[in-house]
Every structure is written in structure tokens, then in C-alpha cells.
């Protein structure tokens, strides 16, 4: 469809901004139903074993304590394991909180204490005494490497690597070879809002569940299935989500436990995790990648061999698309890759912002930089020289790829042409200055999504879909989409998201929401306009100009009015008046955006990705090794940009997280007990204000009519991909030293 | 033996309103605001003074409300995000945060805004570097840091303009 | 957090009555945190904030007295401190965050506990928290742990920045308790863990810090507080160095050095300071000084990087002090 932009593409300020800057936006732990109990979770201090005894006397003696829920007294839940499978499609046996007395990971909830006040519940939780029979465990990644395996049934979104040519032979014959053994530390999502659930038990006994999730409908489905509740008994809401970055893709144990307790106690409850407990569930897996590249002296890649592993739990097989990115993005006649997972006695690792690519693209782009240097070639030139216009792994054309433009425009903005090739040549006082670059790639996905558009008697347009705005700007871009599609001012639009009862929308994640929900809203608005016109056309009591106009298709919606484009401009009517003429109090449509036949064929025949080129300046203290990132430029090719202001914020935000990946973030596993020990914001370092320079994000023009109905690709993950590599590569350019382990910390 | 559960008098002025109650001494200012007064604009991001989401002003100074027992600041004047501005009359810092897209998920935002307002009072605003250093007690996982610094500079520029206007 | 009773005495002598299992509360920035973590479990909290210990005063002999209840922020911003003890102001500003410094007090800063992961996690063995349970930091994830002054029982780092400057400055601490008032050299205030790591300092039960006295001395511009950490702000030190040099023309008359982030207490080695005295600054002199300061360092599984970094940080800090180019805590490039 052709869209002429008036609102779409504008830098509109967030429409949810007022609620957020005034503190009125309510997050999962913030409703206050009367009589609500506070639940505090007690965690296992061991990684594997069995609960022997639970002594609750001291805890129950705390005034205000109402109940202590354990595997011994919990209410009935679904019998079959498959009822606990959530929407993410991770194969294996899903973890079932408080299912039995077996301990599968350190930090596993073993009890939840419920009390009238938070303080009483917290104290009682501290007084719980649990004895365990300890079983041997392994939480050591190095040890687990010996048990690497390929799950029999891979995760549903897993893209198996596809070999081409004869990689091993070509590598052996390549005059120039580089080989690297790369490692990425495990990371935790650590959204600022801790995972929490408030279950409101309504007067009719139904549950309204405020949960920190990226998918209210997924949580609703999970709860009804796992707790054997009927579908209309559970409504899940998440109008505001304090960040998630993937931690809200799966239903976390807090929501299960809160709903279970509400079932048991028939009272409203709240279960919030502490920051420490945020380290007892999902994390980005630790990863190793062995990358071998072969090239000819003119800088032509001849062979790429990538082997990678990530860790998972003993009970589920979490997988990432780790090793495929270089094979997709670079032209190279011979390539092969292999991927395995390794089991540890921990909770299951999971998707964190740009899962697979954040690790796989960044580590691969560090190897590419090393190869460029091995060929004595400028890293940008090297990448342009080995540029692929197709998905080189699947030998498939792409819907679009403006990566070349991104590289060139980004380089120009950054001033890359002034870069000396030799490392260590730029200096300011005791600091060496380095310039590095890398490219990024991420899927551009589209999923069928539904949206409702409703015109109400006051002339306002209400849009609803079960999407989640986790800080992504979804409220705002959907309002822009509706504004444009219905030609109505933004301030006459209400957007309702974050409610499982709204029209179907896939769980927010993977940068697909803008493309998918955007298309659904567009369609719904188009359909609502048609319905309005059709309904008006049936009314014989309307003005002649309108009758005529509708008959001749000359009536349009414009700025919230119906106007006749044929003839006298004075003929116009407000939406409120138009609706009242229909004789109805409101008009409503629901539409589902699907790829359609053309889209489905396109999806089979063409690959679709977002691309970026990141340029970085670092200053590295020559003696102390202290790294400061002083400049970042990211040129992004992501199809149509709905809102440059919020899109740039998305990209910058991911670049901040990638800076953490490059320099700060590492969850420190004490394998003796299977616990991540730096389980707080004091010792798990996410970048602070002082670490982040001004970041320049530019969007490269990329028209793509095929990737999704509105030509949108999504920008939530792309900033992660390449940025950490650009930093690492800049450090090399400053110091002449290669690092193969992220994060690069002082003293490395 | 002292009675451990004995509540203590707590007297505060919160956003201009007097608050008097007997509270267990273990109740933090943050939990008092969020759980007992329904002032949920002040956020809990770590509960250990390590993130800044709970920043409020106590007697004009920015502090982390998660580390203060409510009974231990008798007669203090507390200002939270709810005590700034009102509909149509946002505090300039609130407006600047909207203008400069200085947040995404919004969860650290009240703390950032309270901290930024105090920062301007403290005067550590000579450069973007100085603002960054003195805002570093407020973490933002969405990475809205550039926008936050822009917002603070916008308010500084407005104040300077206002001052120049007054002088003229 | 476990329940406790609360009192708020207005006179010093009332404070140390009935001290069994009690804890003093000043700024609360560490105590409240520890109580929430179930590390500290007092049954009674004595709030000191009504005691008259909140002044910065000049003493007749030229020393400066910092009241125990003056906040870190007010101390760092006090004109007499910024004028005469910019080293102290700089160290304070290198620590924590503005919000924490607005509450944290000088006395509390001295008495803050380690940030050792294992100390903070009641599920883990820790001799400092639970005497006799063992030290799980040894052999564990101990990148942040100490390399100096450790024992079999404990390798926890003392985390303060302010105290590193106070140690360098040779401050004096005044204590008061039921036995009366006494003064101790700051360098003797904190204890090495030895086989009693639960005792961080020499405070007797019930005793409180009433003031910190700074000796009358001046370094001119020849001082620095150089702190290396995992991010550029709001993180504890991996290695930090406080240096003050009294120089005449090009000769170091007297040297004051203390290390943070590497020791189980603020780390001072008088022999290292003596090495510098009467000499003109040179890299080889600084290298010898660093070597002397780090003598006896022991690394464990993860913290060898500290020993690699520390000599370089010490040498750089000494250069900064000798050159009269103290480290800015705002601008992060290191001169």
C-alpha cells in the first residue's frame, strides 16, 4: 500500500510522556487492591538436591503473616508438563515453580511467605528454615563444554546454519588466515523495574493480573493452562512496563506464584522480586565462538568457519541463532558453521536484547576486523569489498539492504576518512585514541496481529491491541499510524495496550511490534473509515453534499473532519456530528494484518534484515588500560522510520547496553554453588551517565515495500548488533592489542 | 526487653501535606510512599541505594528514599515526583524530559527528574561531563542518558534566558 | 529485615546504654542496606542523628575537626575542606553518588562494611558476617577482593574512598563510650582481619565515633585521589590511591600515601612514604615506592589483575601529585 506521510515519520514526543514524567503511570507492582497480601519468595541456596524439611514456626510467628506456600501445601496445578510450556518455544521440560521438592537451580523458589504488610512478609521470609539433601551439580561452563550437544528438537525460531563450498579446504589453502577463540560473559537483563505481579481478585472471583511482561496474552494463556483456570477467569494487564529487554518474554515465576497464591488464599496478592532475585531467573547465555577466516591478500574472504556454544539449563534447551550472521551477511564462497548448547545446573538462559546476534554479530565483527588488518586493509573497505547483496547463507535475495549506504554515510558523519590505518598513532596526553567500526544485522520480522479501531460519540478514535510498550514507543507510533490512516489529529486518539482482553498481538520482542501492530492499526483505521462512510451512506437524512460526495467518492477524512474534496470547501463535518448522523453511539472494527498471499510468497523467497554500521572512538589510557568511549555514530538502515525521535532513542538505548556488553557487564558465576554472586546493581555494572558519550544515530533512506505492510523493519535490537564490536575494534586501533573476551575490564 | 513491634511516631510533610502516623521503624520512606500512601511515582529499582530510581527531595536535598527509615527524619519536608507541577503545568524539568525524549520505559524517570532538579540547585552543571558525573547515581537501563543530559541543558538554558530577561 | 526497636537519644551518654545487639544509625546508607540483606540483624537501632556531632570546626592548634554526623556531601563542599584538604574533598566526590553522599555521614563512612559478594549473601559462608563459617570468597569470584592484609579467614576489601584520603592525611579519630573519650590515629582505627574478621575496627561495644580531626598540613597542588573502577562513576574502587606530597622546590619533604580497593583496610606503608622523602620525583623512585607499598600482596583466583594494575596506578598518582596536576573527579581523562 502507498502511504503518504504527514504524521508517520515525524518526531512526535511520546504520548505516554505525561504519565511517565508525573509518576502517574502504574507498573505491575503498583495497583493497591484492598486487602492485598504481600508475598516474598524464599530461594534455594543450593543448585541441585531435594528439600528435606521446611521449618516455618519462626516465620509464622511474625505478626501479620497469613500463609506460607510451599510445594507441600500449594493448590492443585495442571497435571501434565506440557501445560506449563509457554509461548517462547524452548524445548525441554519447563520449570514448574513449587511443583515438588526437587531443586534444579540455585535461587529456585522454595516457599512464598504472604503477610498483611511488606515488612512482615520480608521478615518472615528471612526466618524460614529449609534443610536440603544436596546432590552433585555442575555450574561450571568450562566443565559443561564437554557435554555440548544439539537438542533433538530445536527451538522453533532456530535457524540452522547452512554450509556452502568447502570451508575447511578453502581455509587450509587461504594465504591469509586468522583464528580467534572468543568468549562472552553471561549477562542479566536487569530492567529498572524488577519483575513483579499484582493479582487482583475481583468481586466475582476473577483475576486481574498486573504483570511485568512483554506479552499479556502469552501470560494469560500460560496461567490458564498451568493453573487449570478457565480462560475468562484471568485477565492480564501491563499498560506500563519498566523495561524488559527479553526478561518479560517468558512468564516468570513471580506471576505463576502470585496467581497460585490468589487461587489458594482467594485474596489479592503481590509478589515482587528483589534486585538480588532478578539474578535467579533469565540471563543472556555465556557463549564461546571459535571463528576462523581465510582470505586472499587482496582482502577477498575465501572461507569462514564458525563454531559456537551457549549455555542452557539441565531441563530446557535454550538455543540462539549465534553462528549464522557472518554467513548471511558476507560474500564468501566457502563457509560453514556449527552450533551446540551446553547444560548447566542453573536456570535456563533466555533471550536478551538481540538474542544470538548481540553475541554472534559482535564477536564475528571483531574477527572481521582482525582479518581486515591481516590483509592490511581498512576495515570499512574490507567490508565493502566482501559485501553481499543477498542472504549469502540461504542464497536468497533480500527485500532491501542499504548497508552499503549506512557504511558510507556513517563513515562520513564520523570522519572515518581521516583514520590512520596503523594502531596507536593517535594520542592526546596519556590517552591513545582509537577508531573502530563494525556492522550490525538483525531480523526484520512481521507477525500477524489484530487491532481494533473505534470511533466514539465524542469524536475520538480509540485504538486497541494487546501489544506491550516496554519503553519502545509503541503507544506513540501506533497513534501516529492511526492519525495518518484516519487523518485525525494525534490529540483525538486514545491508544489502549497491555491488556490480554484486547485484540490479539504477539508478545513484544524481536523488533517486530512496530511492523506488525502498525500494520494492524493501519488496516483497522482504513476499515473504520469505510464503515463510517458506508453507514453514513445508508442514512437518507444527511446533507446533499455528503450524499453526493459519498456517492462519488469525493468525501475524505481530514484533520478529524469529513470534507468534500469536490467543490466548495465549506462542506465539512466533525466526526462527532458524522457519528451522530449514523444513529450509532460508536462504530467499531477489528482487523488482522497478515502477510497475505504476496507477503507469504515474499517470505518464502526473500530474506529480510535490518542493518547498521557503527563507528566508535575510544580513548584508552596507555598505562592503565582504562577505556573511555568518547564518540559513537550509528547509521541504521531499517526501512521506514515511524518516529525518528523515539527510534533514535531505541537505537541509542541498545548502544548503551552494548557498551555495557563491551566494557562492564558480567554476571559472575560461583560454580561451587551455582549462583551468580554479583547479584546487585552495585557489582553488576550497567553503564552509568558518565560512561556514555553523545551518540549520533542516523537513519539511512531505505524504501522497502515488501518487508512488511508499512515498510517498517523495527529498531529495537539493531543498536546492540555491532556496537560492542566497534568498541572492541576501536580499542585495538588505539592500543594494537586484540581482546577476545567481552567485557574488556580494567586490568585485562 | 523492648517490645520489638512497637510503632513509632512518624511526622512528615509530604508534597506540602502533613503526614502523621505511628509506623514500625523498619518501614522505609520509599515503602511508606509506595505501599502506605499510594504515591507510586517514586520507584523501587533495587531497594539498596544502587540505582537512584527512588530519589526524592528531603529538606531540599536529593536522597535515596529506600535507605531511610521513615521514622528517622522527623518533621522533614519530602517532595516526590507527585509534588511537582500539575496537569497543564508541568515542572520545566518534566516538560524537558518529554521534549528531549529523556526516557523510554519511564521507570527510572521520576528519580532522574528529582535528581536533575536537585542538580540544578547544587550547580554542578558547568559542562555535559559535569552533569553526567553528578547524575551518575541514577541508572537508566533503557539508555536514555543522552536525552536526560539534553533535557537538563534545556532547563538550564531556559533559566539563563529567564534570568537575562529579568535583568533586562 | 528483622524487626527492631528504635530510639533516638539526644545526649551522648544515653547513646551507649543498653547496647546488647544494637546498631547505631547515622546516614543509614549502609546499615539499612545491610539490614535488608539480612546481614545486619540488630534488635535495637539507636539513631544518632539528634546528637550534636554535626559541625565542622577549626581547632585552636590549626587542626580541622569534622563532626561524625556531618554528611559526606557537606564535608566535601565545606570551604575549609576544599581550601585546605582538597585531597579529602576529591576522595569523597569519587565515592558513591550525590544522593548517597547527601545522607552518608563521616562517622558512618568509617564504619561501613565490605562490599564482598559473599559477606552480602547470607546463604554463603563468611567469617566476617557469621564467625567461624569460613570464607567463601577464597577460591570464589573474588575479582573485587583484597590482595593486601588478607588472612586465611577473610580477603574482603574495605570499600571506602574517603577513608583512603583520611589515612593518607594521618587523621585522628575521636571516640566516645561508657569508658570515656579517646583518640586514635586513623591508620590504627581499622583492623586487619586476622582470625577475627568480624571486627572491622577497634571500636569497643557501644563506643561511637564523635569526630575526625585533620592535622594542619598543606600539599598545595601536590596531591591526588586517583580511582580506577569498573565504570567511570558510581562504582567501588578496584585500585585507588590517595597521595599528598609536601614539596620544596623539587624535593619531596614528606609523603602521604594510602591505597584503596586493594587492602582489607586503607593501606599505608610508612616505609614506602619514607622512601620518597628527601628525593626528587622520578619514575624509578615511584616504581620502588609502588613495590614497597605492594610488598606481601597475595592474589587469589580472580584478582591478580589488581596486582598488575596497582603499581601503574600508584606510579601515575605519584606523578600527578608531584606534577601538581590532581585528578579531576568530573573529567575522566587521567593526566
Automatic annotation (TrEMBL), chain A:
SMART domains: Ald_Xan_dh_C. Residues 22-136 form the Aldehyde oxidase/xanthine dehydrogenase a/b hammerhead domain. Gene3D superfamilies: Aldehyde oxidase/xanthine dehydrogenase, a/b hammerhead (3.90.1170.50), Aldehyde oxidase/xanthine dehydrogenase, molybdopterin binding domain (3.30.365.10). Pfam families: Ald_Xan_dh_C (PF01315), MoCoBD_1 (PF02738), MoCoBD_2 (PF20256). It comes from the Bacteria. InterPro entries: Ald_Oxase/Xan_DH_a/b (IPR000674), Ald_Oxase/Xan_DH_a/b_sf (IPR036856), Ald_Oxase/xanthine_DH-like (IPR016208), AldOxase/xan_DH_MoCoBD1 (IPR008274), AldOxase/xan_DH_MoCoBD2 (IPR046867), AldOxase/xan_DH_Mopterin-bd_sf (IPR037165). This is Aerobic-type carbon monoxide dehydrogenase large subunit CoxL/CutL. It comes from Gluconobacter frateurii NRIC 0228.
UniProtKB/TrEMBL annotation, chain B:
Gene3D superfamilies: 3.10.20.30, [2Fe-2S]-binding domain. Transmembrane segments: none annotated. Keywords: Iron, Metal-binding, Oxidoreductase. PROSITE patterns: 2FE2S_FER_1, 2FE2S_FER_2. It comes from the Bacteria. Pfam families: Fer2, Fer2_2. Residues 8-84 form the 2Fe-2S ferredoxin-type domain. PANTHER family: OXIDOREDUCTASE WITH IRON-SULFUR SUBUNIT, OXIDOREDUCTASE, IRON-SULPHUR BINDING SUBUNIT-RELATED-RELATED. This is Oxidoreductase iron-sulfur subunit. It comes from Gluconobacter frateurii NRIC 0228.
TrEMBL record, chain C:
The keyword Manganese does not apply. Transmembrane segments: none annotated. The keyword Ion transport does not apply. Residues 1-219 form the FAD-binding PCMH-type domain. Keywords: FAD, Flavoprotein. Pfam families: CO_deh_flav_C, FAD_binding_5. InterPro entries: CO_DH_flav_C (IPR005107), CO_DH_flav_C_dom_sf (IPR036683), Diverse_Substr_Oxidored (IPR051312), FAD-bd_PCMH (IPR016166), FAD-bd_PCMH-like_sf (IPR036318), FAD-bd_PCMH_sub1 (IPR016167), FAD-bd_PCMH_sub2 (IPR016169), Mopterin_DH_FAD-bd (IPR002346). It comes from the Bacteria. This is Oxidoreductase. It comes from Gluconobacter frateurii NRIC 0228.
Amino acid at each position: 500500500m502507498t502511504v503518504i506521510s504527514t504524521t508517520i515519520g515525524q518526531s512526535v514526543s511520546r504520548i505516554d510522556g505525561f504519565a511517565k514524567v508525573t509518576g502517574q503511570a502504574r507498573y505491575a507492582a503498583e495497583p493497591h487492591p484492598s486487602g492485598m497480601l504481600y508475598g516474598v519468595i524464599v530461594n534455594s541456596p543450593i543448585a541441585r538436591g531435594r528439600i528435606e524439611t521446611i521449618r516455618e514456626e519462626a516465620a509464622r510467628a511474625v505478626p501479620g503473616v497469613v500463609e506460607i506456600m510451599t510445594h507441600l501445601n500449594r493448590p492443585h496445578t495442571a497435571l501434565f508438563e506440557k501445560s506449563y510450556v509457554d509461548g517462547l518455544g524452548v524445548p525441554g521440560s519447563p520449570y514448574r515453580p513449587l511443583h515438588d521438592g526437587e531443586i534444579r537451580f540455585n535461587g529456585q523458589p522454595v516457599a512464598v511467605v504472604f503477610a498483611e504488610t511488606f515488612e512482615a512478609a520480608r521478615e518472615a521470609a528471612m526466618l524460614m528454615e529449609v534443610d536440603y539433601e544436596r546432590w552433585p551439580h555442575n555450574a561450571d561452563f568450562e566443565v559443561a563444554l564437554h557435554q555440548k550437544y544439539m537438542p533433538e528438537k530445536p527451538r522453533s525460531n532456530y535457524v540452522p546454519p547452512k554450509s556452502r563450498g568447502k570451508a575447511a579446504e578453502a581455509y587450509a589453502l587461504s594465504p591469509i588466515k586468522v583464528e580467534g577463540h572468543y568468549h562472552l560473559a553471561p549477562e542479566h537483563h536487569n530492567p529498572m523495574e524488577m519483575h513483579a505481579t499484582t493479582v487482583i481478585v475481583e468481586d466475582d472471583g476473577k483475576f486481574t493480573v498486573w504483570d511485568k511482561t512483554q506479552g499479556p496474552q502469552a501470560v494469560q494463556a500460560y496461567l490458564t493452562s498451568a493453573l487449570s483456570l478457565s480462560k475468562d477467569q484471568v485477565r492480564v494487564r501491563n499498560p506500563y512496563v519498566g523495561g524488559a529487554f527479553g526478561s518479560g518474554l517468558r512468564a516468570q515465576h513471580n506471576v505463576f506464584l502470585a496467581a497460585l497464591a490468589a487461587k489458594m488464599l482467594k485474596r489479592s496478592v503481590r509478589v515482587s522480586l528483589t534486585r538480588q532475585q532478578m539474578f535467579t531467573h533469565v540471563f543472556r547465555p555465556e557463549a564461546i565462538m571459535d571463528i576462523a577466516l581465510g582470505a586472499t591478500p587482496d582482502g577477498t574472504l575465501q572461507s569462514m568457519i564458525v563454531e559456537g556454544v551457549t549455555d542452557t539449563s539441565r531441563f530446557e534447551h535454550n538455543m540462539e541463532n549465534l553462528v549464522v550472521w557472518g554467513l548471511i551477511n558476507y560474500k564468501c564462497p566457502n563457509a560453514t558453521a556449527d552450533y551446540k548448547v551446553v547444560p548447566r545446573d542453573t536456570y535456563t538462559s533466555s533471550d536478551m536484547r538481540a538474542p544470538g546476534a548481540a553475541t554472534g554479530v559482535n564477536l564475528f565483527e571483531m574477527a572481521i576486523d582482525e582479518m581486515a588488518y591481516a590483509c592490511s586493509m581498512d576495515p570499512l573497505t574490507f567490508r565493502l569489498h566482501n559485501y553481499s547483496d543477498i542472504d549469502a547463507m540461504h542464497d536468497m535475495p533480500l527485500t532491501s539492504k542499504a548497508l552499503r549506504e549506512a557504511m558510507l554515510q556513517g563513515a562520513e558523519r564520523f570522519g572515518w576518512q581521516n583514520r590512520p590505518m596503523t594502531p596507536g598513532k593517535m594520542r592526546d596526553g596519556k590517552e591513545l585514541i582509537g577508531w573502530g567500526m563494525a556492522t550490525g544485522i538483525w531480523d526484520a520480522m512481521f507477525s500477524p496481529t489484530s487491532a481494533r479501531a473505534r470511533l466514539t460519540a465524542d469524536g475520538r478514535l480509540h485504538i486497541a491491541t494487546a501489544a506491550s510498550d516496554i519503553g519502545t514507543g509503541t503507544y506513540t507510533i501506533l497513534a501516529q499510524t492511526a492519525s495518518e490512516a484516519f487523518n485525525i489529529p494525534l490529540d483525538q486518539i486514545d491508544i489502549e495496550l497491555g491488556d490480554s482482553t484486547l485484540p490479539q498481538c504477539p508478545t513484544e520482542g524481536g523488533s517486530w511490534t512496530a511492523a506488525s501492530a502498525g500494520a494492524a492499526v493501519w488496516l483497522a483505521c482504513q476499515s473504520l473509515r469505510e464503515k463510517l462512510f458506508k453507514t453514513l451512506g445508508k442514512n437518507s437524512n444527511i446533507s446533499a453534499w455528503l450524499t453526493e460526495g459519498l456517492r462519488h467518492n469525493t468525501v475524505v477524512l481530514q484533520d478529524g473532519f469529513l470534507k468534500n474534496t469536490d467543490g466548495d470547501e465549506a462542506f465539512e463535518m466533525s466526526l462527532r456530528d458524522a457519528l451522530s448522523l449514523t444513529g450509532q453511539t460508536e462504530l467499531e472494527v477489528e482487523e488482522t494484518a497478515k502477510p497475505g498471499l504476496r507477503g507469504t510468497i515474499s517470505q518464502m523467497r526473500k530474506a529480510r534484515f535490518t542493518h547498521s554500521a557503527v563507528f566508535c572512538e575510544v580513548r584508552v589510557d596507555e598505562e592503565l588500560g582504562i577505556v573511555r568511549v568518547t564518540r559513537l555514530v550509528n547509521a541504521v538502515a531499517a526501512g521506514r522510520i515511524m518516529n525518528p525521535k523515539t527510534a533514535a532513542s531505541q537505537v541509542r538505548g541498545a548502544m548503551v547496553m552494548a557498551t555495557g556488553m563491551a566494557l562492564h557487564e558480567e554476571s559472575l558465576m560461583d560454580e561451587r554453588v551455582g549462583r551468580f554472586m554479583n547479584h546487585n546493581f552495585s557489582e553488576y555494572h550497567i553503564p552509568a551517565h558518565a560512561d556514555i558519550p553523545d551518540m549520533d544515530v542516523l537513519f539511512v533512506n531505505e524504501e522497502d515495500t515488501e518487508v512488511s505492510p508499512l515498510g517498517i523493519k523495527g529498531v529495537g535490537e539493531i543498536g546492540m548488533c555491532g556496537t560492542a564490536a566497534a568498541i572492541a575494534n576501536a580499542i585495538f586501533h588505539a592500543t594494537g592489542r586484540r581482546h577476545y573476551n567481552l567485557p574488556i575490564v580494567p586490568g585485562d | 526487653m523492648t517490645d520489638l513491634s512497637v510503632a513509632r511516631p512518624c511526622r512528615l510533610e509530604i508534597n506540602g501535606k502533613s503526614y502523621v502516623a505511628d509506623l514500625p521503624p523498619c518501614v522505609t520512606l520509599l515503602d511508606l510512599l509506595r505501599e502506605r500512601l499510594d504515591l507510586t511515582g517514586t520507584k523501587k529499582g533495587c531497594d539498596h541505594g544502587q540505582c537512584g530510581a527512588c530519589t526524592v527531595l528531603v529538606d531540599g536535598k536529593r536522597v535515596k528514599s529506600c535507605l531511610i527509615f521513615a521514622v528517622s527524619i522527623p518533621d522533614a519536608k519530602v517532595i516526590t515526583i507527585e509534588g511537582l507541577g500539575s496537569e497543564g503545568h508541568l515542572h520545566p524539568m518534566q516538560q524537558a524530559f518529554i521534549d528531549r525524549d529523556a526516557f523510554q520505559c519511564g521507570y527510572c524517570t521520576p528519580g532522574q527528574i528529582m535528581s536533575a532538579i536537585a542538580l540544578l540547585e547544587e550547580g554542578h552543571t558547568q559542562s555535559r561531563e559535569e552533569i553526567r558525573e553528578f547524575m551518575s547515581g541514577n541508572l537508566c537501563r533503557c539508555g536514555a542518558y543522552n536525552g536526560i543530559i539534553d533535557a537538563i541543558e534545556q532547563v538550564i538554558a531556559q533559566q539563563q534566558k529567564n534570568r537575562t530577561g529579568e535583568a533586562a | 529485615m528483622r524487626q527492631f526497636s528504635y530510639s533516638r537519644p539526644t545526649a551522648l551518654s544515653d547513646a551507649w546504654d543498653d547496647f546488647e545487639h544494637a546498631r547505631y544509625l547515622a546516614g543509614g546508607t549502609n546499615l539499612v542496606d545491610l539490614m535488608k540483606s539480612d546481614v545486619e540483624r540488630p534488635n535495637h537501632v539507636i539513631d544518632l542523628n539528634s546528637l550534636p556531632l554535626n559541625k565542622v570546626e577549626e581547632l585552636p592548634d590549626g587542626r580541622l575537626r569534622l563532626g561524625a554526623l556531618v554528611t559526606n556531601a557537606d564535608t566535601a563542599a565545606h570551604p575549609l575542606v576544599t581550601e585546605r584538604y582538597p585531597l579529602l574533598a576529591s576522595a569523597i566526590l569519587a565515592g558513591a553518588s550525590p544522593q548517597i553522599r547527601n545522607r552518608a555521614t563521616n562517622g558512618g563512612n568509617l564504619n561501613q562494611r565490605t562490599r564482598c559478594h559473599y559477606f552480602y549473601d547470607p546463604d554463603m559462608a563468611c567469617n566476617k558476617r557469621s564467625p567461624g563459617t569460613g570464607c567463601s570468597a577464597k577460591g570464589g569470584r573474588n575479582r573485587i577482593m583484597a590482595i593486601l592484609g588478607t588472612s586465611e579467614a577473610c580477603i574482603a576489601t574495605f570499600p571506602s574512598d574517603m577513608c583512603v584520603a583520611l589515612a593518607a592525611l594521618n587523621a585522628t579519630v575521636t571516640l566516645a563510650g561508657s569508658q570515656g573519650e579517646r583518640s586514635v590515629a586513623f591508620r590504627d582505627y581499622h583492623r586487619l582481619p586476622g582470625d577475627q574478621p568480624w571486627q572491622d575496627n577497634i571500636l569497643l561495644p557501644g563506643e561511637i565515633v564523635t569526630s575526625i580531626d585533620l592535622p594542619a598540613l598543606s600539599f598545595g597542588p601536590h596531591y591526588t585521589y586517583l580511582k580506577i573502577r569498573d565504570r567511570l562513576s558510581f562504582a567501588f574502587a578496584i585500585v585507588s590511591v590517595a597521595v599528598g606530597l609536601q614539596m620544596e622546590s623539587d624535593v619531596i619533604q614528606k609523603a602521604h600515601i594510602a591505597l584503596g580497593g586493594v587492602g582489607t583496610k586503607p593501606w599505608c606503608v610508612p616505609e614506602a612514604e619514607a622512601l620518597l622523602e628527601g628525593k626528587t620525583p622520578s619514575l624509578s623512585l615511584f616504581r620502588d615506592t609502588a613495590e614497597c607499598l605492594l610488598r606481601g600482596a597475595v592474589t587469589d583466583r580472580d584478582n591478580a589483575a589488581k596486582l598488575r594494575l596497582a603499581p601503574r596506578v600508584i606510579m601515575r598518582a605519584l606523578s600527578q601529585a608531584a606534577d601538581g596536576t590532581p585528578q579531576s573527579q568530573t573529567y575522566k581523562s587521567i593526566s
